[in-house]
Amino acid sequence: MMPRMNHRLLVAAVAFTAAPALVRAQATSASPAAAAPAPAADTIRGLPIDGIAAIVGDQIILVSEVMTAVNQARASGAKVESAADLAKLEADILERLIDAELLVQKAKDEKVEVQDGDVASAVDDQEKNIRKRFQSDAEFRAALKEAGMGTIEEWRKITGDQLRRDKMQQQVMQKLQRDGKVSAVNVSEEEIREAFEVFKQRIGPKEARVGLRQIVVATKPSEAAKKRARDKIDSLWNELQTRPEDFELMAKKYSMDGSAEMGGDLGWNRRGRMVPEFDRMMFSLNPGVVSPIVETAFGFHIIRVDRVQPAEVKARHILIRPQVDSSDERRAKELADSIVLAWRAGGSFDSLSVKFHDNASGEDKTIPEYPRSELPEPYRNALEGATLNQIVDPFPLPDPSAGVAKFVIAQVTFLDEAGAWTLNEARDRIRDQLSEERKMRRLIDNLKKQTYVSVRYDPTKQGGGNR
Fold first, then answer.
1. Which conformational region is residue 265 in: left (phi greater than 0), alpha (psi within -120 to 50 degrees), or beta?
2. d(CA 291, CA 317)
3. Helix (H, G, I), strand (E, B), or coil: what is residue 236?
4. CA-to-CA distance for 72 and 353, rounded, in angstroms?
5. pLDDT value, residue 463
6. Would you call 199 helix, strand, or coil by DSSP?
7. In terms of Cα–Cα distance, which of 93, 38, 96 is closest to 71?
8. How distant is the alpha carbon of residue 354 from its chain centre?
9. Contact 376, 382 (CB under 8 A)
10. 128, 67 in Cβ contact below 8 A?
């Protein structure tokens, strides 16, 4: 289970989107534009000039926006040990905000559009992921309030607005590359060698990494347990035929997954995101209609679509899982033992994985390489001392949703011990990074030449940012 987050970490995880990843790596390579003096009485949209950090085209960036992003950066771990450090952080973030605004305006010029459903779905995903880190809805709401974000609705609007801007920046860069408007940038071997020392300092020592391929065997319910679950979902479905307006209440009371707390809300979904049986039914329903019962690897579902837009639907469900117990777990372990014997005897991984891997588990069949320190504890323990190409004995992996374990059979496909980076190991990463940074920097510099940009805020003249 993920550790609980305090309100500072909530700020960092939820709200620090003012400097998108696409732009973030570029900002330090360019100095802020020179501040332009202006009469004290100058106003834009009724705001006094001393509240404006910069003007980009016909848009303004407020000092308060810069301060908010600075506080979020510090909550995320940015080190500030002096007034000079704080002034530099403010200047860097202001430059990032300017770069981001330039890209957003370019996206509008290029008619780049972000679908409302894409934004809503991304916000839903963020909210679900963050909620998992709190023990209750009340704890989540309290952390939002402590972080200064007010209500969940306010957080969703702020997050949605920024996600839309992020997606616009990403998509305009992709479009310009497709259209041949962003030229490739060559990186020489000498430049890679020069960047190597900086790379080592920034990345730090190389972590031990491991790659594997695996077959995950689920603990499956007995036929008797499946019948009991089917009887229960049949009963709920019959009740909904006479009281369809109770769908959300019934989902909160009976649904056996994380969506129950939100009345079964699954957010916006595109085709192919859910398992096929669920997907087909969800996209065949008209809004407000209660579906027939659908069986998937997760259990039995009743689905209701709330809203529809092109290529997306917003749906709810009620899930009843067949109960599993220790006898089902023993049966899964015996199956895993037989699979490992077949694999070691020369059986094909592809054939065995097609037949036995539990795709509903969400576990990938192949993991090319992964930091050992970030592996879940069951993996770290099972792979300790394993050698290249070894097929390890089946080991249990807790399945909190089912209350029992599933079993993993894994083969080590890659091993790299911790230590210092070599130039050969880092060369491709450095080349790609330098190339992307320079393409982005060139694009933004060209946009600055074509757009009115006036920086009105100088952190070095504000007492090092101590306001």
1. beta
2. 9
3. helix
4. 44
5. 52
6. helix
7. 93
8. 28
9. no
10. no
The token pair that represents 409 in the structure block: 């059979």
Tell me which residues of the chain have a pLDDT lower than 70.
Answer: 1-50, 148, 401, 462-467
* Phi and psi torsions of 267, nearest 5°: 70, -165
What pLDDT digit, counting tens, does each position of 404-453 carry? 899 999 999 999 999 999 999 899 999 999 998 898 899 999 999 999 99
Single pTM value for the model: 0.56
What pLDDT, on a 0 to 100 scale, did the predictor assign at position 154? 85
Write down all domains in the chain, each with its CATH number in brackets. Answer: 7-189+436-461 (1.10.4030), 209-221+325-416 (3.10.50.40), 223-320 (3.10.50.40)
**SS3 of 132, please?**
coil
Q: Which two tokens stand for residue 2?
A: 């993920």
Contact call for residues 93 and 18 (beta carbons, < 8 A): yes
Query: What region does 82 belong to: left with phi over 0, alpha with psi -120 to 50, or beta?
Result: beta
Q: How far apart are CA 13 and CA 161, in angstroms?
A: 16
Q: Which amino acid is at 423?
A: L
Instruction: Write the DSSP string, 330-395.
Output: HHHHHHHHHHHHHHHTT--HHHHHHHH--GGG---SEEEEEEGGGS-HHHHHHHTT--TT-BPPPE
